[in-house]
Amino acid sequence: MTAPVAISLSVNGERVEAHVLPRLNLADFLREHLKLTGTHLGCEHGVCGACTVRVGGEIVRSCLMLAVQANDTVVETIEGLSDSGEIADLQAAFRDRNALQCGFCTPGMLMAAQDLLREKRMPARDEIREHLSGNYCRCTGYQAIIDAVETTAQMRMELKV
Amino acid sequence: MSSIRTNPERLSVLDRPNSYIGKTVPRPNLDRLLQGRGSYVSDLELPRMAHVVFLRSPHAHAKIVNIDVAPAKQMSGVIAVVTGEELAAVITPWVGVLSHLKGLKSAPQSAIAVGRVCWQGEAVAAIVATSRAAAEDAAEHVAVQYEELEAATDMRTALDPATPIIHASLGDNLAFERIHEAGAVDQAFAESDAVVEADFVFGRHTGVTLEPRSVVASWNAAEARLTIHQGTQAPHMVQNIAALHLGLRDSQVRVVCKDVGGSFGIKVHIYADEMATYALAKMLRRPVKFVADRVESFNTDIHARDHRCKGKIGIKRDGTITAFEIDDLTGIGPYSMYPRTSAIEANQVVNLVGGPYSNKNYRARARVVFQNKNVMCQYRAVGHPIACSVTEGLVDLAALEIGMDPVEIRRRNLIADDAYPCTSPSGLRFEQLSHHASLTKIVEMMDYQALRSEQARLRKDGIFRGIGIASFIEVTNPSAAFYGVGGARISSQDGVAVRLDAQGSVICLTSITEQGQGSESLTAQIVGSVLGVSMDRVRVVLGDTDMTPYGGGTWASRGAGIGGEAALQATKVLRQNILDVAAAILQASPAELDIVNNVVVSASDGTPRIDLNELARIVYFRPDTLPPGIQPELMATRHFVPREYPFAFTNGVQAAWVEVDTDTGFVKLLRHWVVEDCGTIINPQLVDEQIRGGVVQGLGAALFEKCIYDDRGQLTNANMADYLVPMSGEMPDIDVGHVVSPTRESELGAKGAGEAGTAGAAAAVTNAVNDALTPFETIITEIPLTPQVILTALKKI
Q1: What are the 2Fe-2S ferredoxin-type domain coordinates in residue numbering (chain A) (predicted)?
Q2: Which positions in chain A touch B293 (Cβ < 8 Å)?
């Protein structure tokens, strides 16, 4: 073990200064230090996608990134995307389509879905399935999630947002 | 029939104006989960909370010679290092048996192993520290000296004299055996035109809930009370078991269960490490948190299936099935789980094989054996996928043998829709099923003939597609016949309390639990509909043994059928009480009044008479203005349990359309259809999503999921990279249709829908793969249908 390291980063628009052990991963930093528990841990080895957050605009598995690597970056979590209203329409589509059951995969799923919708305005169903194929959901069977993302894409096309 | 619809002109929830029954409405309070602001146990922190990490056995079977905890105790942040012997002073061991499963035996199991470990992953010491990282660091400094013992791992040789007996006191490795015979089986086979046999093999798999099992247990020494925050399906069961083994009264244990990150039967059992966590909290007089990591989940969450079943079917040339015979073998690990036992799945297989068909000749044997692997127990659709795959596999083999279409052979043998009530050869009583209506509907939905044409056309181009059909029955709404009669203190009844609050809104406390199925929604829909208030005025509280009525929780497809009926009955009482008060205030007769859209109205013409808000104001703040002798009761409680039938059986049929790549062995799922009959549908979207989620869980078993053990009992793929689960890219769209045969045991008429999808998915896919491979004259009866299995069958590897 080595000594704590000072880090400074932006999390959901707030400046955060902290001293963290080099071995601390970003997911544990968000959950345990900042109490942002919307970022979930499902496998802790980068397979399930529950811990997906945005770092510098790109989605990453926060369980595979060290907190010290997030020094001087801009991190956005589900709480930030919710409060800014960026994904309000996507969340509404998930709610209306019952695209979540236990809700544990949902923050990561929304992160990955919004990432796709920012890249591509009207993805085909297969493309949605492909883009979300790194996010495990045991409850829904995925179809409702695909439907909700597709609906959101259509609505954004119509609204030209 | 135990329940007759009373006062239907006023109180049928199906017919009232503005009813939410049968309507797709979004589940209440989903924003909490959508914004990452839920309350999962893994999120919970309490003052002075410590973290426990378990050091687990690397051996499948070994004697513990010595445990040296001294170096670990010196590590920074460590609060305690506790062995099984020390913890045994706080918590007593248990034996997972039930008296109605005659002959079922098991050995005492301790919270932490004492003297011996019986599977790779069994806890040998608990390390409690100020952080999980500190506890994990210290765990590496606990030195355990083992003397490895020979492991019994293969269920096929578990009963051989040469195989070591895991628990000497039991005399052998046989946990349970059931033999059943009905009709004249030998005669039926002798009189058949053909008899077909096959050996079916089912891979051991597990639930992989996305949130691992999590507990925060907190002992308040001054109150002498333990509060357990746990993601569980059955809070009152946990309360009872924890109290029993810690030497407490039930009232000294409170179980709180808020959001749960997936359950599927994984979280309906009592696990040794959870018991250890409760005991550590009491021992250390502080909150202790245990969250399994993913490796621990694979090594200790119950596994399921792992059956080898010989099956035999007799058939006449006209397509009549003459008899079924099975011989099922399953290995359950070293202990029968507690308190539901590990014999239920094999017992279900015996109960369910042949269940959809009118055949009366049936012979079955099931044997349940111990082995040095992780424990096995009830997981979503307990026994159903085995029974359905064996039955439907045999039916397709019989059809192939006599050259009959798979749909036609089912038409000729499924129990007629007007033959109910009736009893199966295994003794199951069916109230009303709809196999033929369901089959007719699915054939239309999938356009069966068009698919057959497409299949024939593509086959000429070397593209091998197949259609698989699987009819099934599903156990739902269990009465005390499941566990209570065997001595388990697991409630089969559920209760609901509804209360009108001071602003005319409703608080509803229910003993069923929510893991995402929609318990909260269905309860609010029923309460809102029966009472005449809008759903946004109904707040549902679940998962707290201090607050809700006593009940079983959510498992075995029982929440809607049992908890929903309790909600209906409680709300009827509250509604009558409100109308009585309103009548007194308005100087009217209760029969002249109704409640619609949060307002008491004239029943005859809907004229508003008094708002519920105003009525509540008078009752709570100005009772002095009520007529003398009136004591309003704006809270009502009712309980419900089915009494007429032990189980409310549902039925359905699934169909799969697949393409098999005969070069790579990959199976592509093109489309999947389900028609099921769960009786009254409270929320169509929620039912459909239960079906879809269940199907995909079954598809995982069909194609991917298997806990791969080596012959020394080492689980070799205990991570999510090597243990494959269904992901969005491989899964098909699933069309769901319904036939509705309400149960008359309740006014609501709802049966369960949570497990139907899982029950038949693997059977449909396996039949479809075999149908695709017909030109190759090979039959596969093993799941998961991995490329290796398929290429081996094709003799390509």
Answers
A1: 5-81
A2: 44
